[in-house]
Amino acid sequence: MTTTRIVIETIGWSGMALILAAYILLSMGRMDGRSRAYQWINVVGAICFILNSGYNGAIPSATLNVAWAVIGLYTLWRVRQRTA
User: Fold this and answer.
1) Which residue in 10, 11, 72, 79 has its CB near the most CB atoms, within 10 A?
2) How does pLDDT run along the chain (84 residues), one tens digit per residue?
3) Exposed/middle/buried for residue 72 (C-beta within 10 Å: 0-12, 13-18, 19+)
4) Whole-angstrom Cα distance, residue 60 to residue 5?
5) Long-range contacts of residues 32-41, Cβ cutoff 8 Å, at least 24 apart
6) Burial 38-59 (b: 16+ CB within 10 A, else e)
7) What are the residue ranges of helices labelled H in the chain?
């Protein structure tokens, strides 16, 4: 396995861990779905998945995660608008 492949796989697994952790924390009531922390965890996790999926040619997964990241960024923008 090449170094690039190992890095891409590590990025993918990190994205999985971030999104799963955010969902667990949300489900346990430890995090609010509109909080900046929750949205940033999801955005970073989605970006990790985009890199991994794109590299591996999994275009449907990459596309889903582009949408996931856009939704998170939009929510962050809306939260910022309300607090400004």
Assistant:
1) 72
2) 899 999 999 999 999 999 999 999 999 999 999 999 999 999 999 999 999 999 999 999 999 999 999 999 999 999 999 987
3) buried
4) 20
5) 34/75, 34/79, 35/79, 36/76, 36/79, 39/72, 39/73, 39/75, 39/76, 39/79, 40/72, 40/76
6) bbebbbbbbbbbbbbbbbeeee
7) 3-27, 36-56, 59-83
Task: Give the whole-angstrom CA distance, residue 40 versus residue 74.
Answer: 11
Q: Quick one: CA torsion of 80, 31, 12, 53, rounded to 10 degrees?
A: -60
Q: Which two tokens stand for residue 6?
A: 């190992």
CA distance 66 to 4: 22
pLDDT value for 1? 84
Q: How far apart are the first and last CA of the chain?
A: 48
